Structures are given as structure tokens and as C-alpha cells.
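Final report, closing paragraph on structural work. Over the funding period we assembled a curated collection of sequence-structure pairs, and we close with a single example.
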Amino acid sequence: MRVEIKRIKPLRVAFIRHVGPYAQVGTTWDKLLPILGKEGLLGGNPMFIGICHDDPEVTAPNKLRYDACVTVDHDFRGDGEAGIQIIGGGEYAVTTHQGPYNKIGHTYAALLGQWLPRSGRELGANLCFEVYLNSPESSPPEDLLTDIYAPLR
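Its predicted structure, as stored:
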């Protein structure tokens, strides 16, 4: 596993929360993207980010929380369904998962269960998040690339 330590600034994102199985988050993206597209916020180079709040090994599938997020500037105020949140800045351990989203748990397990204990570092207070580097609309599942960010202390 290749892990890089990155220092990032806080990220301001528009988001919609999904509650339920992680395999069903696509419907949440289907709600968020048209809202941002209507506002003209999908041009340029926004980051597409997912925040998985819960461990599916511990939390019941119908209670899993996931935020579908897109970086936005200070002009976007939300529209009722899409809210605003800040992803905390600081140091993160970052690794890239290649392959289908339903296998990403293996990469999380290796990063948090193997790399982190051996690194001499501790998990920080911010949330872990995913940055989607390509799209399932234009890439086959085995070619999907996702950076996983784990906060460090």
C-alpha cells in the first residue's frame, strides 16, 4: 500500500445526506448533481467527495450515513435540500483505491487497520473522506480511482 501524507486546507462543500446502505448512494448523487448543475457549479474543477460516517461492519445497513459532496465557493448558499459543510483541514494519510466502490472497504481496512498502527501516527478528529478521481459514468468498475483521506494527529 502506498500512502502519502498531505496537508490540506478546509474544503467547503455542498452536500446531501443519504441514510441507508452504501450501495444505494447513487440516488443521492442523482439529486445533488442537478442542483449544482442548475447553479452552474459543475464547471471548472470541483472535487467530488464522499463522507462515510459509519462502519458497515458495526452499523446496521439502514442506519449508515453518507454525504455526497461537491466543493463549492462562498457564493453557494444551499437550496433547502443541499446543505453546506466544511471538511476540516490538516494532515491526512492518503492512499488510492483502484476498482469498484463495493470493494473500497478492503482499502479502508488496510489503511486504518494495518498502515496506521505501523506508522506511529494516530487517527485525528476530522472525518475520513473519499475523493472520486473519475466517474462510474465513463469508467468501468475495475478502472475507478478513489483517493481515501484519513485524518492524522
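Residues 4-151 form a domain with the Multidrug-efflux Transporter 1 Regulator Bmrr; Chain A fold (CATH 3.20.80.10). The mean pLDDT is 93. We thank the funder for supporting this effort.
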